[in-house]
């Protein structure tokens, strides 16, 4: 039977036009962005060890999640899930929602962020400034179910960073963060890093770094640093991907109550678990030395870098170490930079701070504390 013209439904041209415009807007955001700096602070005590920090705080939306949000939007549009008028929903501890609210605003799409009540005020303000709506849950482990329920109720699309972060990014290159780092290192005295150090939220950035290191056959190893309250470290040690952590993470952006699907343990060479006091102390020390404030997860990264630098110095090794400044400390003036908050949370940073400052000035790591 030949189809009658009446039943022949052609694809809607208007939808196609919207997709084209949306892709060109996202690509335009990429074109207007410069690559982020790979800074090289000097630490007088660390002879032969070069430390580099990729400064992701300079993206228009203030964190490394700018990259992820752009990738998730492209992924959603190219998979036909995001169309004209689609309401977008996300589960987030804040940074991702800020970046996604920005892109939703660019594309004139409604955006709803589902976040823990503990999310910093500055992130909430940023989301609302971009026209997004915030929906709160009391415990971080509730964000997934709440976000998927909100998406069902409004007939929207759940972006689901924790599932899709590892696959929305082109791991072979396309100027992903790994390719950018290795390109920026090319003219350095020690161009191939001994280690790249990264904390895990979705696990997406560490997955991209680990895959890219293998793909390009570099001798670099990947060290993932986990925080006090998080399921990742336990899962890495035991192989139990069902591991959970009941206590919510205090370091925003990293540490998760469950092992996220985007966390890929097989590409990680080593993991270190770092106490929150050590992370926040390292954040303060680095901020003082850079003369500007970095965020808590950057402190976690920096403590891991110091730990590896100490190990290398002890063995008489030279080499370079690379990590990230994930976001700026301006978002945390009422928490990590507030002595009252530290005291309320029973976090004593003084001993770690003293130890790190001494280490950076002398190269001697005197550590009798749990890391
Ligand atoms: C998301 C995030 C991280 C971790 O990056 P992932 O790629 O999600 O593992 C670190 N720091 C901050 C501030 C973040 O928002």
UniProtKB/TrEMBL annotation:
It comes from Billgrantia endophytica. Belongs to the cysteine synthase/cystathionine beta-synthase family. Cds1 subfamily. PANTHER family: CYSTATHIONINE BETA-SYNTHASE. One of its GO terms (molecular function) is pyridoxal phosphate binding. The gene is cds1. One of its GO terms (biological process) is L-cysteine catabolic process to pyruvate. It catalyses: O-acetyl-L-serine + hydrogen sulfide = L-cysteine + acetate; L-cysteine + H2O = hydrogen sulfide + pyruvate + NH4(+) + H(+). Its cofactor is pyridoxal 5'-phosphate. Its main location: cytoplasm. Pfam families: PALP. Keywords: Cytoplasm, Lyase, Pyridoxal phosphate. Its EC number is 4.4.1.1. Pathway: Amino-acid biosynthesis; L-cysteine biosynthesis; L-cysteine from L-serine: step 2/2. A cysteine desulfhydrase that generates hydrogen sulfide, H(2)S. The H(2)S produced by this enzyme may modulate central metabolism. GO terms for cellular component: cytoplasm. InterPro entries: Cds1, Cys_Synth/Cystath_Beta-Synth, TrpB-like_PALP, TrpB-like_PALP_sf. The keyword Translocase does not apply. This is L-cysteine desulfhydrase Cds1.
């Amino acid at each position: 039977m030949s189809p009658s013209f009446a039943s022949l439904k052609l694809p809607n041209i208007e939808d196609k036009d919207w997709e084209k415009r949306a892709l060109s807007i996202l690509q335009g955001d990429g074109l207007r962005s410069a690559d982020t700096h790979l800074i090289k602070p000097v630490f007088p005590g660390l002879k032969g060890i070069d430390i580099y920090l990729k400064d992701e705080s300079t993206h228009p939306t203030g964190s490394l999640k700018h990259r992820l949000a752009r990738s998730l939007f492209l992924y959603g549009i190219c998979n036909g899930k995001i169309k004209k008028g689609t309401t977008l929903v996300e589960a987030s501890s804040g940074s991702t929602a800020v970046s996604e609210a920005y892109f939703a605003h660019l594309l004139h799409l409604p955006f709803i962020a589902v976040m823990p009540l503990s999310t910093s005020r500055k992130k909430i303000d940023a989301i609302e400034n971009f026209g997004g709506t915030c929906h709160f849950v009391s415990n971080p482990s509730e964000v997934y179910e709440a976000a998927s329920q909100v998406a069902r109720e409004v007939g929207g699309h759940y972006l689901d960073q924790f599932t899709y972060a590892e696959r929305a990014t082109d791991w072979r290159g396309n100027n992903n963060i790994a390719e950018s780092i290795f390109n920026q290192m090319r003219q350095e005295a020690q161009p191939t890093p001994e280690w790249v150090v990264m904390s895990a939220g979705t696990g997406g950035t560490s997955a991209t770094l680990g895959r890219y290191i293998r793909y390009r056959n570099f001798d670099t190893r990947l060290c993932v640093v986990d925080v006090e309250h998080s399921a990742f470290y336990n899962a890495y040690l035991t192989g139990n991907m069902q591991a959970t952590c009941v206590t919510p993470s205090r370091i925003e952006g990293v540490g998760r109550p469950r092992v996220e699907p985007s966390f890929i343990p097989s590409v990680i060479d080593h993991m270190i678990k770092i106490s929150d006091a050590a992370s926040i102390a390292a954040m303060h020390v680095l901020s003082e030395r850079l003369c500007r404030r970095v965020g808590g997860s950057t402190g976690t990264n920096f403590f891991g870098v110091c730990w590896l630098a100490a190990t290398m110095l002890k063995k008489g090794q030279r080499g370079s170490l690379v990590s990230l400044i994930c976001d700026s400390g301006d978002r945390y003036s009422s928490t990590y930079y507030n002595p009252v908050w530290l005291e309320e949370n029973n976090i004593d940073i003084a001993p770690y701070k003293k130890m790190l400052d001494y280490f950076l000035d002398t190269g001697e790591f005197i550590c009798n504390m749990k890391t």
